[in-house]
Amino acid sequence: MDATNTPYGAAALDAARTLYRGEGLALPPVPASLVPGLRQVGANAYASRDLGWTLYDFGNFVDELRAGEAVEPYVAFGLSGHGVALQAAHYYAVTARCALLFQMRWGTPMNRPEQDRQRHDAVLSLGQRLLAAAEAQAKAGRLPAGQRIVAAESSFHGARWAWLPADEAIWHPSRSGAVMDALIAVKQPG
User: Which residues partner with 98 through β-bridges?
Assistant: First the structure.
């Protein structure tokens, strides 16, 4: 991609808004503090940081957090994939105390567009509640020291949540939704 033609900041957010409006999806939330660094990183992908992989590489986002690296707050989102059947809507939001990693099949012949739109928008809304609850609990001193709650939910890789980093991280599989389960864990730590 030619960086000279890549929109940054508010222009990138406007381009993303147009993309999502065209798909009938809610625009993923972008914290105001991250908007100035937001840029287009692919044809239909946006991020507030450099990525060494595509949005479709869900496992890389999980592995980066699981490795215990000091990951600074960022947001990355968009529509991307491989081939006809492996397209998805992505949203990755990482704060100091919470990470929401969401990937949902989108734009394929297997879609149920109206149901999928509702699910996409509901998970984003619930994700915002998770991010806010983690911040509030951290300010109140009620989260495990040095850890962040991670909710990882993907149409292709399943759903799970954990407190990371941890010497022996325990991933909790989720049938009802990792974001909801992580929200419950944040509100009732310990």
Answer: 149
